[in-house]
Amino acid sequence: xxxxxxxxxxxxxxxxxxxxxxxxxxxxxxxxxxxxxxxxxxxxxxxxxxxxxxxxxxxxxxxxxxxxxxxxxxxxxxxxxxxxxxxxxxxxxxxxxxxxxxxxxxxxxxxxxxxxxxxxxxxxxxxxxxxxxxxxxxxxxxxxxxxxxxxxxxxxxxxxxxxxxxxxxxxxxxxxxxxxxxxxxxxxxxxxxxxxxxxxxxxxxxxxxxxxxxxxxxxxxxxxxxxxxxxxxxxxxxxxxxxxxxxxxxxxxxxxxxxxxxxxxxxxxxxxxxxxxxxxxxxxxxxxxxxxxxxxxxxxxxxxxxxxxxxxxxxxxxxxxxxxxxxxxxxxxxxxxxxxxxxxxxxxxxxxxxxxxxxxxxxxxxxxxxxxxxxxxxxxxxxxxxxxxxxxxxxxxxxxxxxxxxxxxxxxxxxxxxxxxxxxxxxxxxxxxxxxxxxxxxxxxxxxxxxxxxxxxxxxx
Length: 461
Fold this sequence. Notes:
Elements: H1 10-21, H2 25-46, H3 48-53, H4 71-76, H5 78-81, H6 89-96, E1 111-114, E2 124-127, H7 129-144, E3 162-166, H8 173-187, E4 194-198, H9 203-213, E5 217-220, H10 222-233, E6 243-246, H11 253-263, E7 267-273, E8 277-282, E9 288-290, E10 295-300, E11 314-319, E12 327-332, E13 336-339, E14 351-354, E15 362-366, E16 369-373, H12 375-383, E17 388-397, E18 400-407, H13 413-430, E19 437-440, E20 456-458
Parallel strand pairs: 3-4, 3-5, 5-6, 6-7, 17-20, 18-19
Antiparallel strand pairs: 1-2, 7-8, 8-9, 9-14, 10-11, 11-12, 13-14, 15-16, 17-18
Helix pairs in contact: 1-7, 10-11, 12-13
């Protein structure tokens, strides 16, 4: 590398990002290989887990020669995975246990996040300055300044009225991003220009708050944006945002078109993960371009071999930006198709079609009218139950919801189920839908042929 990989600054990160945007695909591929060599060398020197895992590899292996990394092995050996010996699982967990640390850096230099663990064991991720600055530059240049939003002059104004509707609490990426943004607004004395609504906020209260704020940008899950669109179509929500920002769930072309028609503004989408950061971003042609100068994406089959187009069983992700906790050929469950054909927007980066993360919106007959339930509302309730590995919610009728769950081996499943039912019933009561019967089932969760679990199902048979 022409510079110290640790010596990252905001200016350098932005320059590196923009330099890659002017390269052709061969140049980006060379840059990717160079950064992979840097990451591998650092991981083999500083991570005991990866030094052991890569012991028999040649000095400069091909990507396909590097063994995949599974969440289960990485999470169970966290202390050996990270590259800074001052970082420990015990220390990080103590840090996470203190709510006041939400916007603070661990050890004064690292940001800490956690995955939900909704379909697997939870994972702690530590991000260094290199990762944070590079991902900030990617957002600045390819999301805010990209081909879809870059021409909207009003979006370049500072301190726009902003609102986030997402999962509240915890060290989850979207919530932490909002808190840091809110902190910046408050330092400028502009705290009244930004608002947060938890996804389980009753819709009338959310609509009232949005109408009062008149946000210029709204960030939410696609399922939540659909519910807000229905409120706007009904004349309840009266806002005119400059742009909507979607993330975390699959956003279909049909839903995007509906949202853009309803709100009369562009919808921006990006695909990100706690392990990899900003993987891809939407362009003016509505294709998700991979940030392949800093991320490697490999659609694979069940045996981690390259997948035929349309037959992906998962994705191997390599994050070339984060040195402190190397993510190299790390398997995630989303199915994807990687496309290399030229895009009308002119981007030199390949595009990605995500097939995972598809869930239903459930509509119940509440006491005061329809109650629409977005997937994150119920999925979050399971995340907060101690001993609950995953929850599944099956709508059996307009007034019946069946709840199934998987518990950790050392947990009392009946107690886990009881607490989950209490939480879910509380959500329905808060939204004037106490008439809906919420009941537990001892049946195992329903999985697809590939073994994947959908959290929300609708079955009226």
